[in-house]
Amino acid sequence: MTLRRFLLAAATVATIGSTTWAACWAWQNPPQIGFQDTPLLPGGKWHVHDGTRAQPPVVTPGTAGTPDAPGKAPSDAIILFDGHDLARWRAEDGSPSGWKIADGAMIVPPKGTSGGGPTFTKQAFGDCQIHLEFATPTPARGTGQGRGNSGLIIMGRYEVQILDCYDNVTYADGTSTAVYGQTPPLVNASRKPGEWQTYDVAFTAPRFKADGAVESPAFVTIFHNGVLTQNHTASLGSVVWRAVAKYEKHGEKEPIMLQDHGDPVRFRNIWVREIKSVEQP
Ligand code: MG
């Protein structure tokens, strides 16, 4: 055996040996996750960097939409509309939703056609994240509130306005992503009529005391086409027109509603994720 071959063989044996030893050591001494000798966080339940705290559930993220194709929902989302049917929606009286489907979109029935009226999810939701994509009619018709009007009405009460606000002036608290009748959006991030737009909403449901008094209001945070337009805005109550909203006690979970305001607004890729506290199992 040449010296070169001897050194190569010795190195191989040493490598295998050290790898085996490392594996055995790791098996007998699993890595410590976190700490138990750190101060307690407020609430007295968890230490800072507590290693016994539950790991966050794993979610496979979705993908963003394009002008030609809707995005893909995260793996734990409840799909409300994927372009095919209205199985998860109903009319106000509980009968099947009469909204139309064409080219992968669900559409508010045009005036003078059948199937109109608001459409509701069959499932009820409380705290949640909502994603929807919509396009206002093209060519645009009408002005102000009469142009591409619909609405995302969470819990059937709290309206996030949907309106064609591209080069269309109306009262500020009635523009797209306004908390209708009270809080205008921070900016107008609208796209042109006919172009697909996105709303990404984080909603916290209101809490009520036993006597019906408000314990904490509803809060909404909204990104319109990726731009922040509402930042943890508190709702004044159930949406009304030309009046100040007020609360009426309701269930912890209520259906999501899309508004029929007479304009054939199109929707695609609608999904929702229920938000649970990190301490909930
Ligand atoms: Mg509306």
Describe this structure in words.
The protein is mainly beta and 281 residues long. It has one domain (78-274): Exo-inulinase, domain 1 (Jelly Rolls, Sandwich), CATH 2.60.120. The protein contains one helix and 15 strands; from the N terminus they run αβββββββββββββββ. Strands 1, 3, 4, 6, 9, 12, 13 and 15 form an eight-stranded antiparallel sheet that branches. A five-stranded antiparallel sheet has the order 2-5-14-7-8, with no helix packed on it. The protein is globular, with a radius of gyration of 26 Å. It binds magnesium ion.
Question: What's this entry about, in short?
Answer:
The chain is built from 1 helix and 15 strands, in the order αβββββββββββββββ. By secondary structure, it is mostly beta strands. Strands 1, 3, 4, 6, 9, 12, 13 and 15 form an 8-stranded antiparallel beta sheet that branches.
Mind sketching the topology for me?
Elements: H1 3-28, E1 78-81, E2 89-91, E3 100-102, E4 105-107, E5 119-125, E6 128-135, E7 150-154, E8 158-162, E9 197-204, E10 207-208, E11 214-216, E12 219-224, E13 227-234, E14 254-258, E15 266-274
Magnesium ion binds at residues 149-151, 161-162, 259, 261.
